[in-house]
Amino acid sequence: MTGDRTFSVRGKRVTVMGAARSGLAAAELLVRRGARVTLSDARETIDGEDRLRSAGVELELGGHREGTFTGADLIVTSPGVPFRQRVLDAARAAGVPVIGELELASRWLRGRVVAITGTKGKSTTTTLTGRMLEAGGHRVLVGGNIGNALSAQVDDSTEDTIHVVEASSFQLEAIVTFKPWIAVLLNFSPDHLDRHADVEAYAAAKQRIFENQSEEDWAVVNAEDPSATVMSQGLRARMLPFSMRGDLGDGVVVQGDQIVRRQHGADEPLVPVSSIRLLGAHLVADVLAATAVASLVGVDRAAMTRAVESFSGLEHALEPVGEIGGVRFVNDSKATNIEAARRAIESFGDGLVVILGGRYKGGRFEDLREPLAGRHASVVAIGESATMIRAALAGAVPVHEADSMSSAVRTAFASAAPGSIVVLAPACSSFDMFQDYAERGRVFKQEVSRLQEAWIVTREM
Predict the structure, then answer these.
(1) Are residues 125 and 34 part of one domain?
(2) Distances (CA, A) of 324 to 49, 321, 330, 416, 442
(3) Strand ranges of the sheet holding 378-382, from the earlier edge strand across to the other edge
(4) Are residues 113 and 192 in the same domain?
(5) Is the pTM of this model over 0.90?
(6) Distance (Å, whole) CA 126 – CA 257
(7) Catalytic residue (choose from 145, 187, 331, 337)
(8) What three-state secondary structure class fits 440?
(9) What are phi and psi of 321, to 5 degrees?
């Protein structure tokens, strides 16, 4: 069991900062728990204003007044709110506790928590883990940084619930007591340097997933990722490593055509590799991580395999979109950092065309030169980072620029030969051109569909 039975906000003044999905869920939860809640947001209008007011939430819109924060008994931040800023620092100086929404919700959970973090692969692993545990007969709620905010799950949490939580660095930097029964670190590479002070601060936030665990808990860690290995040294929790290579003494590995759990030199088959329906070798590592968690929970191999066989991946994560004139299109809009884009590129062969770009958030585009050149690829650069991409890849591969997704898709198609692949793998955030990565992926798919319709009409003329 997790949670804190002594934690109460009844009668307390609580300020929630940020009115996105998590902030809204936190504000409504706090009201139900008896707090006097003010929801503060920099925007002039937010979704659900009438519902919030009728629930008893006071709204402070159009900016943050310092007195709303220094006069509170508790402040809860949404993940999208930078954890260090003036009004929060003033509140801390006044002795007001500041916690994140994930921390708040976790204090009231009754079930156990499986928390999954990493630079890439979180959503795929979280979703598949939830499906494996459900297939094994467990009561599961999946959420956090994916789907429902954890605060929206509190009222449904029971002693036998397993909460499978995708945890971002933004959420983890704002924890205090958050304590997963099973904590998963998939990988680590530089990212979110537009938010974190430096790569060390980003790593420290990720590493916090382990800090409250005890000897009764588990840490599931990618043994092939050097940074993840370093970050998991000296933990109190028991360790279960995973690797796509079969050279671990103990852990979850690929051995022949099986994912197995190796203990004391004996291999227990869990999931056939042939049951995996996902594009991209790197996604096999996500399946291993989910399998490791399911093994710890006690899910039988038949249930694990059923879950894997029926899982074809997530929207915007190496998602096959369609084919035009022998050219296949793949949507990996969730590849929002350099390492994720590199993994996408390495999933395909010669003649690849990659749509790269958006709002730069750290990393080196130069790291993509070798995998692109090795595949005789070409690049279509979009968004604010297009000039940076052209400079970083000069002399390695052809780089074209496009001022819209429509132009990018058509330019990519014109650059591709029959039998090759066009992949949207931006290596950047979407906020210069789109609301989020999901909108970017949807627009990409719409433009591919329009091009497909135009191609059919042209062929029929």
Answers:
(1) no
(2) 45, 10, 12, 10, 18
(3) 319-324, 327-331, 421-424, 353-357, 378-382, 399-401
(4) yes
(5) no
(6) 23
(7) 145
(8) helix
(9) -110, -40
For residue 145, indicate whether it is catalytic. yes
Q: What sections of 313-366 are H helices per DSSP? A: 338-345
Give tens-digit pLDDT for 296-318. Answer: 999 999 999 999 999 988 889 99
**Shared-domain flag, residues 186 and 264:** yes
Domain extent, residue 26, equals 13-96
- Six-digit token string for 56: 């008893």
Tokens representing residue 354 in the block: 């990659």
Q: Which residue of the set 122, 179, 334, 400 is catalytic?
A: 122
Catalytic residue among 64, 120, 163, 192: 192
Q: What share of the chain is helix, strand, coil (3-state, %, to 5)?
A: 35, 25, 40
Residue 192 bears catalytic tag: yes
Active site residue 122: yes
- Nearest 5°: phi and psi at 31? -60, -45
Residue 225 located in a structural domain: yes
CA 436, CA 245: separation in Å to the nearest integer?
35
pLDDT of residue 150: 97
Q: What is the per-residue pLDDT across 111-156, written as a single tens digit (0 to 9) for each?
A: 999 999 998 899 999 999 999 999 999 999 999 989 899 999 999 9
Decide if 242 is inside a domain: yes
